[in-house]
Each structure stands twice: as structure tokens, then as C-alpha cells.
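Class, carefully examine what follows:
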Amino acid sequence: MGYGIERDEAIALLKKYIKNENLIRHCLASEAVMIELAKRFGEDEEKWALAGLLHDLDVELVNADLSVHTLEAEKILKDKGVDDEIIEAIKMHNETASKKKRSNRFHHALAAAETITGLVVATALVYPDKKLASVKPKSIRKRMKEKAFAAGVNREIIMECEKIGLDISEFSEISLTAMREIADQLGL
């Protein structure tokens, strides 16, 4: 089933618009978590993966301005003929610019998935080896409660995992497992 863009094209698009390697890694991590969530819920893995991969396509273009972040991505992806549901999920991961509330599993999954990746990475970075292999789901849950730790990570958005039927324990485990599978690409 086609969604208007293949993964290799999506990667090329990311590299065209995102120069910061850590942002590209964040998109790869989000893609990995979205694939695992799609498997868990019997959703389309390719569709969910593309949303994860492309969700921050315009973040450098708009200088991370949340009032417009995703609006440029919408234009770019529409011009490429990318599936409307993918574009909608990407727009909805930033409610500030979309001016709407997330309303379905796909929207909540993307928002929670892309947000928890930051907490997982921050947790790995406090370990001496800075490796995902050292992180335990319990550590992620512990760090969730420490508001000063990775203070820029919005815990409320992570907790939208409950809106897709997962408690934080299961969501942490799914996310960590997904990211471990691509640890080499993430440099962790």
C-alpha cells in the first residue's frame, strides 16, 4: 500500500530539511517507536512509521517555532503527494500550530511516541556507557516522576499513552525495545 512516499525518499527529504544529526536521530527513534505501536495495535506499520519519521520535517525551517511548526511540513508533504492521514497526524503532534486537539489513536500515538524518545535518550545519557542497553523501563518511569530531569520533555504528552490503551509501564517498555533495535543508528 502506497502513502505517496517511500522510506528512502522520506529519509532523503529529512536530510534535505534537517541538518542537525540529533534531530534526524530523534526522527528515526520516533519511527521505531511508531512501528512497534502499530504492531501492538494491528495498525499499518508503514503509515505509522512514515508519520514518526517525518513529524519534525520543518523544525529547522521554522526555527522550532511551535506557533508554525508542522505547517511548512504540511505544504512540503502535500506537494509530494503524501497521504492525508499521515499529514494530519504530523500536524496534530503540535496542537499549538494545528489549533485543534488530538482526537484519535494515530494522533495520540505519534505525540506520545515522539515525546518519550527524548526521555529515553536523556535516561541513557546519564549511564556511564551512555547506551540504551543499560536502560531499564523502570528507570524511564522513575525519570518521568523527576520533573527537573529532562525538564523540556512534556510528561502530559507522554501520558497520552493511556489514551491509546497503554499504561506508562508498557509504553516505556515498548519504546525502549523499539529504540534498542536501532541503537547503532541512534549512537546509543
